[in-house]
Amino acid sequence: MTEPTAAPAAELRPPAETRYAAELDALARADAATGAPIPPGWRLSARAVRAFVLGEPSLGVSRKFYGDDPLVDRAIVSLLGRQGLMLVGEPGTAKSMLSELLAAAISGTSNLTIQGSAGTTEDHVRYSWNYALLIAEGPTQRALVPSPVYQAMARGAIARFEEITRCPAEIQDTLVSILSEKQIMIPEFGDEARLAARPGFNVIATANLRDRGVHEMSSALKRRFNFETVRPISDRAFEAELIGRALDAELGPRRPALTPPVMEVLVTAFADLRTGRTDAGAPVKRPDAVMSTAEAVNVAIAASMAATYLGDGTVRSGDIARQIVGVAQKGEEEDARLVRHYVDNVVRQRARGNPHWREFFDAAEGLWG
Amino acid sequence: MGLTVPPVDPTDPLVELVETPALPGRLQSALAAHARWGDAGIHLVGVRHHSPGCAAALAALLEEVRPSVVLIEGPREYGALLPALADERTKPPVAILSVGERASGFYPLADFSPEWVALRWGMAGGATVDFIDASYADIADPGGVEVRTLQAEHHLARSALIAAVGERLGCRDHDETWEHLFEVRSPEALADWRRFFADTLAWGAMARLDADRELLDADGTHAREAVMAAILDRYRDTSGGVVVVTGAFHTLAMLDVLENAPEAAWVRAKAGAALDPKRDAWLIRYDFDRLDGLRGYGAGMPAPGFWQRAWQARSDGVDPRRFATEVVLEVAARLRAAGEPAGSATALDAVGQALRLAELRGRGWPGRTDLTDALLSCFVKDDLGLSGAIGDALRGVFGGPTLGQIPDGLAAPPLVAEARREASRLRFVIDDATLRQVSLDTQRKPSHVKRREFLARMRFIGSGFARQLGGADLVQGTGAGLLFEDWEYAWTPLVEAALIAASARGATIAELVRAGVAERLDDEHLGAGRVARLITELLVMGEPDALRPALDALRRCYDDEVHLGSVVASLHALVSLSAEQGRLSLGARGDAVAELIGTGLACAAHLIAPLSGLRPEDQPGACDDLIGLRSLLLRLVELVETLPVSTSSTSGHALRRELRLLRRDPRTPARLHGCLLGLGFSDAELDADELARASAAHLAPGADPERVADFVLGLLQAAPDLLLHTPELVEALNTALGAMEPEAFLTVLPDLRRAFTWLKPTETHALAAMLARLTGAAVTELDTVLEADPLLAERAASVERDLVASLRRDGLTAWVAS
């Protein structure tokens, strides 16, 4: 394994502590200058961690997380306490980014990370063994392969557990005793052998509560975490900008034109169906299907492809409509009904005054006789 | 400078925060002048209404300065209520009620209102207390029709400068910014009133310098300030000191007047207004729920229940940890009472979280947002936020319906007078309590419409004055063809009592109607049908202006409604409204109703597909709904001229599409399928061949007998005469019935009998003739004349009489009816 920080230039995406090393330095110096109290095991004061995430122009620290400052306060304060921090929310809402930023600012590393999946085992959460050494030397510290959580406990750092609900519940529950007792027993080292967590240790988990195929969390585990919900981007202009950037990255600058009115149709339709409310406040029935920004990007890409290969090289609202109906039909039949209701109710009214919505309406109507 | 912003130490003067080029030296000079006038004995105290921080600082000021005059922003006429306000038996929350031509205003007072502290201190200490604002007669906004507060602070909430400060501090809104800068100061910092009120001056001045002077001129702010300045002028040379308590927004203006500054020209231009009271005012009981800024109350702080606790805790010298613990434990107790788990460990965590949040945000005392954030972090274990049980618990702690108290014997509110005046004007006899009846020709006489509207209003507000006996009843949807409406009424003492009791909810009939609408719309079991009925009721009362919330609620209902029947009923009601233009006036809301019909149709369309999975016991009702829907579509076609074309045509299209899809869905139950086929055939969507083909599946030899019966039931319910016009179908039905096993036939026979009762006797006869032809029987033989021995018939009748009498005797009257 190569050392991640050894050659940052060659990395596709260096971790936050590398990318923002200068900002972290500036904040540490400011802490030293003001004598701000630094919690045990932390690299920075709580306020400096906050400034790192939310920006501090006077120190040249950029804002990295938008839209919910009190959430960041609550997250930092949760990490100061004995509870772990559970970031929940729909896919594509920057949960992982927030967890990475907090870990980088608090512990100076965001790399003590477990990527949860159906294949995650208890060994990934606690420790495992280098079997060659284990046979040669017996259970020695050298033969023990520490998990990211183990390392975080030993160093007094933040461990990150991504997509914890992708793991089976019994694996998730390995964390229950670690979080409540702040220690791991290592019976192989002899009676009462244990690793005690040093100050500064805590866990940030991210989870998706809505997706299909995720595992329920036990209430024992829930009790050990403070939950914070990261909401999707609510600023439509900002979301349109993000989609445009993603399209450029995916299809290159010569992608088919996606005019602002069509982009607005896309962003508005997604925001309506995601929030269950139109801009004007009229209620909309929410489908189960994920209507995240990431999914909007997929729709835009597919619509662009359709425009390139099947159309005249310009993305039209009709293309968008066909793709959105496709997104809805990924889910259950019920979702298709909900989108149909959206078209019948909201789009129908908008179609009266706006040619782009008219096109959306006609294309969608055509899809169900 | 180190890392001091954000957040900022709240004890720093606010001035440092806002040293931007946008704020000229004017603020500096104002602060200097403020201090100078204070030294000279005139203390201009800028407050936020219902701010416990301001109240605490003001209490400290009064104790130290011990002024001989206390002036309070509030309509001049409130001075008459001072004895009642000072009465020991008066306990907040109370409110002073002013009644204007179209709008009435409340002036609420809580324990922690600075105004309350000032007037109680002044009355107890023997100081002169006076209200210095313009009379309500002069400040009531002629355009406003809502019940409103006399302490509105919208200028503060709108200030861009304050918003910028809030953003810099990481506060989510103007209330949190205020809380951050003022409320969460430690008790010692609050007692430092010089600094505190210098800061409130700066805060108010920020909003003031942001505000458009033309706007302030137009909304009467300058005129009110001219009155305040004139009254202050009367007292300014009184020895012993003057304390002037006004909204912080006015402090700079008052200072400008005292200083004779050029900026005061706008206020001086309004000088010369009448200073004498012109109106009456009433003291009424009030509650925290209505005081809560989060629930649409335009002035004061959100969560008064929370601030009441904070005020109490600080008066008792409780430390922040114990205060936070008490609030959290009360929320936890309410959660447990609601059956939700709320462990002590979690509560303890929440207390720690609240205190650490306050510390991180640099607050000397945990504020409302710190506590709500802590409860959110520790008690909510999903992504639903502070909703459900925790939301209810929080609302209970932060609000609460506890009423204040006032001494008995105060004058009754003016609602009674209004009702009597209106009743006399409309020529109802109210000199005695006799019950009287009237028949009103609302179809042709506008004056009768007015009388009906008044009766309906009095009925709606629960006065017990009137009720409708019969005739054309638009609300019940009965007697549509009749010209007259029959009502009865009586002015009893109970009516008067009901009106006095109702005064707390609204000072005029119009307000009570609006409050009643809001109350009914608040019901969580509200269905589209009931909202549509409420809309009709409002129109019957002649209150088209109050329609808006009901229309909005109906729109929301359409989003959640799962009962097709309720949607269909509501749509019929809406269509009736559009059709009954003679008796009712929709006013400017016609378009909104048309729009709603469109939304309702979309909702109905949405509810059709799930019918394919309906349980057998729900199917008869669903058939009724489908038939109702079809008659609705027919009515819509008639109404189409009066509605925007796209509304009706397009979404009628969606409805027809869904009906078509359901008809073609192989999972659709036989009964509904029969019903849909019947409707489709009647509307010429299907021809006879298609009908026969579609029916074949149900009537094929060997078909499940119950399915045959269900199908026939549905078909005949929708279109009873259909069988007569389609011999093919009769033939298929005859074959299917003939092919049944005798036991099976007996099983479904009751259902079949019921199905054929939809036919009129002549139709039954015609059908019998068709069947006779089919089976080769002679038609003439069908018309059998029964002959019975008259004696036997008489005996049978006598037995029946005895039987009925015996059943009645045994309390089984219900059996007789069937």
Question: Mind explaining what this structure looks like?
Answer:
By secondary structure, chain A is α/β, with parallel strands linked by helices. Chain A folds into two domains: 8-229, P-loop containing nucleotide triphosphate hydrolases (Rossmann fold, 3-Layer(aba) Sandwich), CATH 3.40.50.300; 236-366. Chain A has 17 helices and nine strands. Chain A has helices at residues 16-19, 21-34, 46-54, 69-80, 95-107, 122-125, 131-137, 148-155, 169-172, 174-181, 219-223, 236-251, 260-275, 293-309, 317-330, 333-351, 355-366; strands spanning 84-88, 113-115, 127-129, 144-146, 158-162, 183-185, 194-196, 202-207, 225-229. In chain A, a hairpin with an 8-residue loop joins β6 (183-185) and β7 (194-196). In chain A, α16 (333-351) packs antiparallel against α17 (355-366). The longest helix of chain A is centred in the last third of the chain and has 19 residues, at 333-351. The termini of chain A are far apart. Chain B is α/β, with parallel strands linked by helices and 818 residues long. Among the domains of chain B are: 14-286, no CATH class; 320-398, no CATH class; 415-502, no CATH class; 786-818. Chain B has 40 helices and eleven strands. A four-stranded parallel β-sheet of chain B has the order 1-7-2-5, with helices on both faces. Chain B has a four-stranded mixed β-sheet with strand order 6-4-3-8, with no helix packed on it. Chain B has a three-stranded antiparallel β-sheet with strand order 9-11-10, covered by helices on one side. In chain B, β3 and β4 form a beta hairpin. In chain B, α26 (528-540) packs antiparallel against α27 (547-560) and α36 crosses α38 (761-775). Chain B starts with 13 loop residues before the first helix and ends with a helix. The model of chain B is unreliable at 1-22, 142-147 and 645-650 (pLDDT under 50). At the A-B interface, α2, α3, α4, α11 and β9 of A face α19, α20, α27, α29 and α31 of B.
